[in-house]
Design brief:
Length: 295
Amino acid sequence: MPEPSELAGLYKEAARATALGSRSFYFATGFFPRDLARAAHAVYWFCRYTDDLVDECATLEQGRRDLEEWAERVQTALQGSEPSHPVLKVFLDTARVKNIPPEYPLELIEGMRMDLNGTRYRNFAELRTFCYRVASVVGLMMSHAIGFEDPALDYAIDLGIAMQLTNILRDVAEDWRRGRLYLPSEELERFGYSEGSLAGGQRTPEWNSLMRFQVARARDYYQRAMPGIALLDSRGRFAVKVAAGVYREILSVIEARDYDVFTRRAVVPSARKWWIGGRSMAIPVARQFWRVWQS
């Protein structure tokens, strides 16, 4: 086991990686108690590192080699060997303390294999499997880190899919430049929008209709996921609600820009994030006040 002083430094490094990798997620973890924030940063660092092996690889062959080497190291560590890699050290410490099932990190790696071996998705069923592996399992790991009652994990799956769909819509142009397209081919055809139009960044009526459909589906998954927040440990509910609210707001930014995801990235301003956090806190307080006043 790493020394406590070494782990303390690694958890700080995980927090820095989270702040650099996802400002929205890092903002939400600021509402966690310290131990839950540390666990969230450790999970994020593991997921970010694994994802970067795919997204930042120079060639597909190099990405496959790096991912398989990483998969072997993760598998060995999960089987009880003490890891030497800093990301694995801090993740395994959190996994042990929080009883995170070993199949979740392995499922994430399987999702990364999907990303390396295929750059198109024929239909939503295929895309949903990808979303589950690269995002829902993150929500499942976080649910274990926070603590939960059944059937919270079912809702965590839906929230992960909602967030990944949001990422896909926000990053359409960036993913295209990397040679990837996550919008299902069947749906491109249904709405009459071609890959050639996408390559040219063309915002046509067909594009707007396609994106309107995608945004509505993502919102539906957020709606399905919301009841699960009440099933999380009370110390972690608020932060998850804020994270979901901030991510959901990305969809509103996309809409406000008339579905222009080609010229600039949809980002939720800091002031708006704080407003979402304040609203998330104020609504339950107001409801409780109303109950007391009526009693």
